Amino acid sequence: MSEFKRPDGRKVNELRKITAKVGVVPNADGSAIFGFGDTIAIAAVYGPKKMHPQHSQNPEKGTLRCTYNMMSFSVTERIRPGPSRRSQEISKITEWALQPIVMIDEFAGQVVDVHINVLQANASTRCAGINAAAMALAHAGIPMKGLVSSVSIGKLDKQLVTDLIKAEEDWEEGEGPTDIPITMTEDGKITHIQLDGKITPAQLKEAVLLAKEAYPQIHEAQSKALKDVGEEK
Amino acid sequence: MTDRTIVIPGEVVFKGDNYLPGEGTEKRGDEVVAIRYGLVEESNKLVKVIPLSGVYQPRRGNVVIGKVENVTFNGWVIDLNTADGAFLSLMEVPRYVNKDDLKEVMDIGDTVVAKIYSINKRGIDLTLQSNGLGKLDKGIIIEINPNKVPRVIGKEGSMISLIKNETRCKITVGQNGFIWINGDKIEDELFAKKAILYIAENSMSSGLTDEMTGWFEKNRGIAQ
Hints:
The structure holds two protein chains of two kinds. By secondary structure, chain A is of the alpha+beta class. Chain A has four helices and nine strands; from the N terminus they run ββββαβαββαββα. In chain A, strand 4 (63-70), helix 1 and strand 5 (110-120) form a beta-alpha-beta unit. Helix content of chain B is 21%, strand content 36%. Chain B contains four helices and 16 strands. The model of chain B has no long low-confidence stretch (mean pLDDT 89).
């Protein structure tokens, strides 16, 4: 098993180098940048603020609103700016991944806006986006049960690997590629899981275990970034 | 201000049954867990997390500075930079007000110092019935991060009285981050502004009031 070669020479359960920093957007109430290697996402949080238009206000509890976007220069082949089917789907997915941890019930009629932008993409952009968003929400002082961390698990032919790159997402050999982004809370509860490809139930369980293994590394990077900001000054 | 550490949401702050969860914390089993990002403060077994960032959360009794957004038949709508709208009722203005001409007292765009006397589902209610409240017509307004307001005021107002003495300005600090400065000379006002912005920038360091005494010594010559 360990003889399996990944295109960039990583071990099967090895993450790319993580970069994390908070307070990158001075105008926002909270912001963060998170990167897996050369996949970099930036998140800015505004609010809680009054929801407009009024008819979308929820008088019972606060609303979380996420927007995911890829910069047109984030990939070699320029992508057309503006909302697409894909970005709308990922926006919604991010919202669902973060909903269980934010405690915004008391902000009735108000909204917390999360804007995620991908500066540079080399697969796992939604995971980087969710990680950045979790940090930015904490940085904005939003009450939260905890942080979430997200990682993509892939199946290349029959081999499970952690943190996919683009070359692995397009794996052509054997059974082809399978991409499983997973988001988890600190105590290992899954808030988001997607599956793109084919996998057996037994291997899916293995994939979740692999994500659990990667979790502490991501969480540590996130909390370190949040704590460092205070010691700078 | 000794050894206060930064915690992140979900982090266990204290273990053991004898700690009480205060603001920004939650009890899970026998652990006190932070639910906000901020500094830990513990006194008499009560654990609190003081937020470092985020929008201003209005509280009863806060003195705030706002701008008149609209004039209605029975009061003024005030913009405090909060999610909820704020209303200053005619009844809460301790002077004679001609009901047919509220604009005479305060018009759209005027700035006012007021106190929050209640927060309910409809929004924030303001009053002017206390000392030092009312419409502002002289001086300058600056804005800082609302989370840094406590540092500008200092322990029992030590910092703000230092600035007032050094710059000979009248200063009102609104809890929502707006600060009103009024002095005889514009140079004094700008000097006070510089001092306050310096505090806001260095709000993380401890012993800030002592540091500011030195800062005034050093900068007094430059400002005048």
